[in-house]
User: What shape does this take?
Amino acid sequence: MHTQVGIVGGGPSGLLLARLLGLAGIATVVLERRTPQYLRARVRAGLLEQATVDLLTAAGVGERLARERLTHDGVEIAFDGRRHRIDLKGLTGQTVSVYGQAEIQKDLMAAHEAAGSNVVYEAEDVSLHGLTTDRPRLRYHQAGAAQEISCDFIAGCDGFHGVSRQAIPQEVIRIYERTYPFAWLGILSDTLPVNHELIYCNHERGFALCTMRSLTRSRYYLQVSADEDVADWPDERFWSELKRRIPADAARMLETGLSLEKSLAQLRSFVAEPMRHGRLFLAGDAAHIVPPTGAKGLNLAAADVRFLSEALIAYYQVGRTDLLDGYSPRCLARVWKAQRFSWWMTALTHRFPEASAFERRAQAAELSYLIASRAAQTALAENYVGLPIA
Ligand code: FAD
Ligand code: PHB
Assistant: This one.
């Protein structure tokens, strides 16, 4: 079997790319190793830049998003028990949207189902071959039977633990990485959000984040040590720790309840360069990971997908190859700015176990500078709402 673009991974990157290409009449096959039920239940991201909302809308999956998203004009940073609001809209003219990644995943899956796209779930042992030839191939097993697809191009959209990046020879790929000595423990519950906007809390017991999925569904995160076990965190322990870390007025308002989901996410900064090898193009978490503090991961993935779809469409419609050649540098210019911001925002808001007394004082000074300086708030706001797509 032959297709134009073979896509490894049916997460947000892979399915969005398949949608944009499909709308332009380009044939794709998506190979995803998980089941549809698993994908619909995966919680993860919640905060979208306007450019991501616009791209989803252009991909024809913006209808429920437009109806159900919550638009936020600001965000709060709390420290020393006090809350400070950053006026995103006043400082940048832009807003951000709350709409869960699980909902995006469902919308994309429904759109593909309606369009009759070729999405193979439970594709096992996916492997990539002939990347530097003009007929790269994907091999996999489906229900035990071996399959092979030849492609014009392959898009590696299979996340951080996928096989696409591994298919690039070590001597042509360069890895830049930073790990953090802590993780995020997240809880989802059908309780009223403690505030109508997000609150990022720097507290001596560790960072906490108050976020949401809707007006009646809350999402909270706690900084915990990297080797923490979710089983050691029954709901009562989570809620009582959260109450200690968020400002007292918020703690008094906090509605607690049964958790619908509880999971641990490791924090990592990671970039693989270049994002192209022969006819393989990496997009999203397959090429880069940011710590979730700046809410950039899914938004960066969407920007990659936009650039890749533009390049492939220009190739098929008018025979241009310059956008394919420029894909990796174009993405990486944006990726590194988001890396810097996510690392900075993590450093500003978390408690680092190994921090010296000097570093603690410098962090406190930076927080107090931030809330006093319009310039510092503008710098945060510009990055938070998303840098322009160049
Ligand atoms: P993935 O979502 O990882 O999808 C990859 C897909 O490939 C998966 O479906 C996987 O099953 C499949 N796959 C893997 N290996 C194979 C294989 N061998 N064969 C076939 N298929 C395979 N980002 C934001 O922008 N805003 C936020 O608010 C935000 N919050 C976050 C909070 C948390 C706690 C976490 C963990 C992440 C958050 N992110 C956020 C980041 C965001 O979730 C990711 O950046 C996003 O999921 C990347 O999408 P992707 O499609 O590139 O990768
Ligand atoms: C979320 O809603 O899950 C979320 C929001 C903002 C972040 C990270 C996660 O920075």
Notes: The chain has a mean pLDDT of 98. The two ends are 37 Å apart (CA to CA). The first strand starts at residue 2 and ends at 8. The CA atoms of residues 290 and 340 lie 9 Å apart.
